[in-house]
Write a structure and sequence with these properties.
Number of domains: 1
Helix content: over 70%
Largest sheet: none
Oligomer: single chain
Structural class: mainly alpha
Distance between the termini: 33 Å
Shape: elongated
Radius of gyration: 22 Å
Number of helices: 9
Length: about 270
């Protein structure tokens, strides 16, 4: 039998998970959050709409848009990443997908690689949507709130760096959570861990070791965005290291699943 190619496996992942609620929630979260903040801003500054006489003395990209949208990102993105990773494992556990996959002429590495690529792809698309929604939101508010002069500030590089480093951080969180979801089939443990680490990341923002916590990276990036300076720091190096490390160890856990399922299946058939 001819081996199935990696791209065929990846295509099947897209088809199999096209209606997965967690994926769509993760993808559309930044768009939904941006729209909610836009509505709030317009409601709060209703008297300033189409009124160029009312000005704003600070960078509106930061203090009108960013401080609201990105704070929600810091609180909710790690949790959504955990739910996303759990759902990718859960769908296989529920439908005996792991057992069925390993009965086909496909290498474990190809199967696992397709899942990692799919997970990173969803992360990238979500952040791309967030990046575009943020820029379009600012351009729209520039027309509705002319006195705030959004167009007078160039935040293209700052915003691009923010979302690029956000992608690195949430990729680390997603793959760490995938590892936990492979080990613990329960929904509570992986999601509870993500919630705890997110809260701990908020509390420990002023600590020297905060860069060691990928879940707290978004808060650190927020403060950098507010200051107008975002640099590639040791936190980004650590997040990239976490991505590589957990991709490797998750593969060994993933590979062991077929041995466990085959063993227990053999036991059940022998009794």
């Amino acid at each position: 039998m001819k081996p199935i190619s990696f791209f065929t496996i990846l295509k099947s992942e897209h088809y199999k998970l096209r209606f997965n609620i967690a994926i769509w929630l993760f993808l559309l979260f930044p768009l939904f959050m941006t729209l909610c903040v836009d509505i709030y801003v317009l409601h709060k500054h209703a008297d300033d709409i189409y009124n160029p006489a009312i000005t704003f003395d600070y960078n509106p990209w930061v203090w009108v848009l960013g401080r609201y949208i990105f704070d929600f990102y810091a609180l909710l993105y790690p949790i959504l990443a955990a739910i996303l990773s759990y759902s990718l494992c859960d769908v296989e556990y529920k439908n005996y997908g792991f057992r069925l996959l390993f009965t086909r002429p496909i290498s474990k590495l190809s199967i696992y690689s397709s899942k990692m690529v799919f997970l990173l792809e969803i992360n990238f698309i979500s952040f791309l949507i967030g990046y575009l929604a943020f820029l379009l939101s600012g351009f729209a508010l520039d027309k509705l709130l002319p006195g705030y002069e959004f167009s007078s500030y160039n935040v293209n590089n700052l915003t691009a760096f923010y979302f690029s480093y956000l992608f690195i951080a949430l990729s680390a969180v997603s793959i760490m959570q995938y590892y936990l979801s492979l080990i613990f089939k329960s929904f509570v443990l992986p999601i509870g861990f993500a919630g705890f680490m997110t809260i701990f990341g908020v509390i420990a923002q002023n600590k020297d070791y905060i860069y060691l916590i990928p879940y707290g990276t978004v808060w650190r990036l927020n403060y950098c965005f507010y200051s107008g300076i975002i640099n590639f720091s040791k936190g980004e190096y650590l997040n990239i290291s976490c991505v590589l490390f957990f991709i490797i160890i998750s593969f060994f856990v993933f590979s062991s699943i077929t041995l466990k399922t085959s063993f227990f299946r053999y036991l059940s058939s022998s009794i």
